[in-house]
Design goal:
The protein is of the alpha+beta class. It folds into 2 domains: 191 residues, 2-Layer Sandwich (Heat Shock Protein 90); 116 residues, Ribosomal Protein S5, domain 2 (2-Layer Sandwich), CATH 3.30.230. The chain contains 9 helices and 15 strands. One of its GO terms (cellular component) is mismatch repair complex.
Length: 339
């Protein structure tokens, strides 16, 4: 009998990886936005059609790529961001797995246009289901524009699994908002079809929160600031009036990466004890800066979960810092002695 095990062709391996990295249009948008930020962009434009099912386009004015790098960027495990395993413990960029573009190109039709400032001409590359269809020099502005068309065109099961446009659009907007909050210094816009949803100038965090959430937030934000040897906290928490029954307006960033942490969410909520009803969720946009060697963000492909060395200490610092911020701003409720 002959041996029967074979290595999978790249296109299939990429498609399998895509199942983890690209669940829906919003996950593709997240990866493209992170790449634009990593490329040092100061201006990022997003254009969406059919809730991302037809088009997700991200245009940045970042450092661009050479023609060879443009081609390489679609190979799996191809990255300019880490070189050695030690680098995994000192990650300063959003990306590092080198999987996103390979995964996206495995399940969509992708057009990349990219040019470095120093180059006369840029490169236009078409790739479809991991297959390069065309690559040509082209006159282009500095930076990178990536258009992801017909997501899951070759994976009908996935395509059918996508939710309504309203639901997918909500996820896209959430993803956009997270990056916009994490980077108020970057000018950003979001268009859906021909409609402008956001046009955000470079600004302070406070101005960015107001631009995204609404004018009523302007007078409702309390600054939070704390520096401990291990951890720096900054950002804003909402006055108790901003607390809502529904979750969703809680933004926690660790080293500028949006993360979900029920544990630290709990730390924030305990700081509000006695200020809001226990079934309400406070508004917050908080940034934790921690030495990358104390965290592990490599636990999940979408990198929204991380592990901390010392969760309990962080919990304590967060709670104390917020308690202090809230206490300094709030008048103790007066008690009526109606005797
Ligand atoms: P990762 O971000 O994990 O490195 P990606 O697949 O997202 O992996 O990207 C692969 C590589 O392509 C990146 O390391 C980077 O060098 C390059 N790249 C991707 N997007 C951009 C962009 N918008 N501008 C410049 N370079 C980019
Ligand atoms: Mg990336």
């Amino acid at each position: 009998m002959s041996d029967i095990i074979q290595l999978l062709p790249d296109a299939i391996a990429n498609q399998i990886a895509a199942g983890e990295v690209v669940q829906r249009p919003a996950s593709a948008l997240k990866e493209l936005l992170e790449n634009a930020v990593d490329a040092g962009a100061t201006h990022i434009q997003v254009l969406i059609k059919e809730a991302g099912k037809q088009l997700i386009q991200v245009i940045d004015n970042g450092k661009g790529m050479s023609g060879t790098d443009a081609r390489m960027s679609f190979e799996r495990h191809a990255t300019s961001k880490i070189r050695a395993s030690e680098d995994l413990f000192a990650i300063k960029t959003f990306g590092f797995r080198g999987e996103a573009l390979a995964s996206i190109a495995a399940v969509a039709q992708v057009e990349m246009k990219t040019k470095r400032a120093a180059d006369e001409l840029g490169t236009r590359l078409l790739i479809e289901g991991s297959e390069v269809k065309e690559q040509k020099p082209a006159a282009l502005p500095d930076g990178t524009a990536i258009a992801v068309k017909n997501l899951f065109f070759n994976v009908p099961a996935r395509r059918n699994f996508l939710k309504s446009n309203a639901v997918e659009m909500r996820h896209l907007v959430e993803e956009f908002q997270r990056v916009a909050l994490a980077h108020p210094e970057i000018k950003m816009s979001l268009h859906q079809q021909d409609m402008e949803l956001y046009q955000l100038p470079a600004s302070s965090l406070q101005q960015r929160i107001v631009a995204l959430m609404g004018k009523q937030y302007r007078s409702q934000l309390i600054a939070a600031q704390e520096e401990s040897p291990f951890l720096t906290i900054s950002g804003f928490v909402g006055k108790p009036e901003l607390a809502r029954k529904t979750k969703g307006e809680q933004y926690l960033f660790v080293n500028h990466r949006y993360i979900r942490s029920p544990y630290l969410h709990h730390a924030v909520c305990t700081a509000y004890e006695g200020l809001i009803a226990s079934d309400l969720h406070p508004f917050y946009v908080l940034f934790l800066e921690i030495d990358p060697k104390h965290i592990d963000i490599n636990v999940h492909p979408t990198k929204t979960e991380i592990k901390f060395d010392d969760e309990r200490t962080i919990y304590g610092v967060v709670k104390t810092a917020l308690r202090q911020a809230l206490g300094g701003h709030l008048v103790v409720p007066t008690i009526d002695f109606d005797l």
